[in-house]
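Two proteins follow. First one:
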Amino acid sequence: MAVTVETQDKQMRSNVDITRGDNVQDQINNATNVSSQSSGREKHSNLSGESEPRGNRLLLFNTVIEKSLLKFMSDARFHRASQIFHPLYKKNPQETEKIHKQFIEHLQRSIQDDITKLIEEGDLQCKLDKLDQLGAASNSQDAAWRPSGVPEQDLCSFVMSYYMKQEAYLKRELRKIREENTALAERVQAGREGIGRTEQHIATTVDEWKVSAQASFNEFQILSSSPCPPATFDV
C-alpha cells in the first residue's frame, strides 16, 4: 500500500514537472514570436521610412510645439493649483476654479501669440521650406556643381546671378521713383496752373475795380465842378 502511494506521488510530480516544462516552453515560444514580430515591424517601418519622402518641417514644428504646449498646460492643471492656493480654494472653490480657467485660457493664448510672432519675425516658414527643398535636392541623381579650376569663371558664375538680381531690383526701384516723380511733377504743374488762374482772376478784379473807381471819381468831379442850384444841397 505504501509502495502504491509513493508511486502515485512520483507520477503526480512528474506530471507537474512536465506541465511546468510545457508552460515554460510556451512562454519562450511566445516571447520568440513577439520579438520576431516586433523586429519585423521595425524593419518594415525603417524600409517605409526610407522610401517615403521627407516630411514638411513646418508641420513637424507645429506638431512639436502643440504637444509641448499641451504638456506644459497639463502641468498647470487645477489640482496642482488648488494645492498651491489651498486657503483660497478652501474658502471659495468655485471662484478659484473660475479664476484658474481664465488664467489658463489667457496663458495659452499669450503663448500661442508669442510663438506666432516668433515664426513671423524669424521668417521660419521660408527657412523650413528651403530646408525641405535642400532635403529633396539631396536625393537627386543629377550631377552636382563642381569648380572648373578657373577662379575667374567660377566666381563669375557664382556672382553673376546675384548681380542680375540686384540689377532687376534697382530697375524696379528706379521705375517706382520715376513714377513718383512724374506724379509729383503733375501735381506741381496743376498747382502752378491753379495759382496762375487765381492771379489772373485777381488782376481782372483789380482792373474792374480801378475802372469803377475811376468812373466814380470822374462823375464826382463833374458834379462838383458844375453849378448847381442851392436847393440841391439842402438837407
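Second one, unrelated to the first:
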Amino acid sequence: MDPLTDLDEATLQVIIKAQLQDLEEMARVNAPKGKGRAGQHDPRDDLSVAINAYRDELAARSQFLADQAMCRSMASAVDADAEQIQALVSEEQRSTRDRRMAFRMGGQPVPEDNRHDHTSAAAGAVDDEVVERLRHLNISGSPSQSPVSFGFLQSHQTGADDDVMNSPESSSWAAQRRPAHRTTTAAPKPIKKMPATRECIACTDRHPINNLTRSPDCGHEYCRDCIQSLFTSALTDESLFPPRCCGQPIPLDSCRTHLTATLAGQFQAKKRELDTPNRTYCHRPTCSTWVPPELIWNQVGNCLQCGRRTCVLCKGAEHVSRDCPDDPATQQVLQLAQEQGWQRCRACQKFVELNTGCNHITCRCGAQFCYVCGLPWKTCGCAQWEERMLFNRANVVVDRNAGGQRLGARQRAEMVEQARALLVENHECDHTSWRSRGGTHRCEECNHTLPNYIYECRQCQLLACRRCRFNRL
C-alpha cells in the first residue's frame, strides 16, 4: 500500500515545498560556471532542463491542491447551508407574494420588485440536484481520506493521471469518511433525499448522477462509458457525426468532464476534418491522410504524413506538366452509377442507391438532397416519390406485420394500399414517436440484427436500434 494515501493536503504541501527547496539547491550547485567549449555538450544542461521541468510540475501540483481545498470548502458550505438558504429564499418569496396581493386587494398598483428575480436565481443555484451532485462528488469530507488529494503522486507511478482525475470516488471511500465530518454534539441536518442513481438512455443501467452527462436539448442523460463510446464512434462513423441525441448535437463543452483529454483532442481534430466539404485525402492507399485546405495550392494537395501530392479534382496522383485528365476509373464508376440509377451526394461525392421509399435522401454526411436530380432537398420540382419504390416499401411493411402468415390476395392488396397511404402521409417523418417490437429484427439504418427487440417509428414504421434512434437519425 502506498504510504502517501494517509497524508492530508497540508502534509503534501510541506513535501512539495521541501522538494522545491531541494531543487533550488541542486540548481545552484550544478549551475555552469563560465562558458563551455564550442560544440561540446555539457551534461549539466540536461540536468538543468530536468530541474526546470520538475519545478514547474511541482508548482502546478501545489496550485492544484490549493484550488482543490477551496472547492472543497465551497462545496462543504453549500452542503451544510443549502436547506437554510432554501428556507430563507422561500420565506422571502412568500412575503413578496403576500405584499403584492395586499396591493391588489387595496386597488393600488403593484410596485416593481426585482428582488424576486434575484431570489429565484439564488434558489436555482442551490437546488436539490446541485446539492446531490456535490454530495456524490464526495469532496466535502476529510481531506486526509480523499484519494484525489494524492492522485498526482500516484500518477507518476501508474501513468493513469487522467483516470484519477476523471473518476468519481468509490462507495467504499465514501462509507469510510462520511462519519468523519459528523459531530456528536449536533444532530445531522435533514436534507431532502434525491434519487441516488438515474438511468442512462443508452445502456439503460442506473448510475450515480455525478457519472451522468445530460444532452442540453432533449434532457437525456448518458453515463461516462456511453458518452465516450458515442464520441469514439463518431470519429470513424460519419453517420454519427456530430454526436447527437434526438437529432440535436451534443456540444463537446457539455460533456468534456466525462471524456478523456485524448478523446476530446481527437474529436476536435476530427471535427475540423468532417466539417470540410469535398474533402481531399492522400491518394496513396496505405496513407489516406486528410489534406487540410491550407495545404492545397493550384488544385494540388500536399500530404503531411507521407509527402505525396494529390490532385483535388480526380483525387488521384498529381498530374505533372498537364491538366487533370478524365480519370478512367472514375469514368467507369460514373458510367455504372448511371446504368444502375444511383445518385451522387454533392457534399461528400459518395454514391447512394435507393431501393424503397420516397426520393428524400439523407446522406451519411448529413446532406439532404433529391434522389432524382441530386439538388438540395425542396429546391427542385421533382416528384417526392416514385410509385414503384413506394409499393416496394409498402410490401416490406406488410410482410413484417404479417409475421410469416400467408395472406389472401385481396387482403394483402388492401394492406399494401393502407401501408402506401400511410407512407405518403408520413414521408416527411421526424421520427418523434416510437414503439417497441419484440423478437429478432434488423435495424434498417445500420443493418445490425437485434435478437430481442427493436424500435419502430409510429409514423413511417422505420425499424431502428437504440443507437440509431437516439444518435443517428
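SUMMARY FIELD: The longest strand covers residues 434-438. The first helix runs from residue 9 to 29.
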